[in-house]
Design a protein that fits this description.
Elements: H1 25-51, H2 63-88, H3 94-118, H4 127-170
Helix pairs in contact: 1-2, 2-3, 3-4
GO molecular function: C-8 sterol isomerase activity; cholestenol delta-isomerase activity; steroid Delta-isomerase activity
Keywords: Isomerase, Lipid biosynthesis, Lipid metabolism, Membrane, Steroid biosynthesis, Steroid metabolism, Sterol biosynthesis, Sterol metabolism, Transmembrane, Transmembrane helix
Protein name: EXPERA domain-containing protein
């Protein structure tokens, strides 16, 4: 097995017992997505009522909350899957798509928090549920998309600058 080509750096790295992956990258991504969907679905089913202690708008089926969650599922869900495909296959539009999904997520999160604030922000059963569930559980929906959006913005600007330099040289 030694000497069998591998995808790791440095190329001359010795990996005794290395066995190439028998699954394609798209298969691995597909299995990961299905497993993630299953985990998310089970988590929602089991924890929905518990999470509602931090934000009772879910239990009450608040119109604004249902709308934001519905749009997120219908628009951002498929766009996120397309972004995973674009990243995995190295498509040129992957950064633009990631940026768009992140902006959508940040917009939805802003609407989610602002509607709660405008309605008095009185949806949690206790300070614990407010800070752990409402603030803590939702923090990742701000932090992660913001970090990804900033990274994508830099990549897009860098690509635009390189393209602009190439155009200037060809004139």
């Amino acid at each position: 097995m030694e000497g069998q080509p591998h995808p790791y750096a440095p190329r001359d790295l010795k990996l005794p017992g290395y066995v190439p992956n028998f699954l394609t990258q798209s298969t691995i991504v597909g299995v990961y997505l299905l497993a993630s969907l299953l985990v998310v679905s089970l988590t929602w089913i089991l924890s929905g009522k518990e999470y509602s202690k931090g934000d009772s708008r879910y239990a009450a089926r608040d119109a604004a909350t249902v709308t934001v969650e519905g749009l997120t599922a219908v628009l951002e869900g498929p766009a996120s899957l397309l972004a995973v495909y674009a990243i995995a296959s190295g498509k040129s539009y992957s950064y633009v798509l990631q940026f768009a999904v992140c902006l959508g997520q940040l917009y939805g999160t802003a609407v989610y928090f602002l509607t709660a604030y405008l309605e008095g922000d009185h949806f949690a059963t206790s300070p614990y549920h407010y800070y752990v569930y409402y603030v803590g559980a939702n923090a990742s929906w701000v932090v992660i998309p913001a970090l990804i959006a900033m990274r994508c913005w830099k990549k897009i600007c860098s690509a635009a600058q390189v393209h602009g330099q190439k155009r200037t040289k060809t004139r």
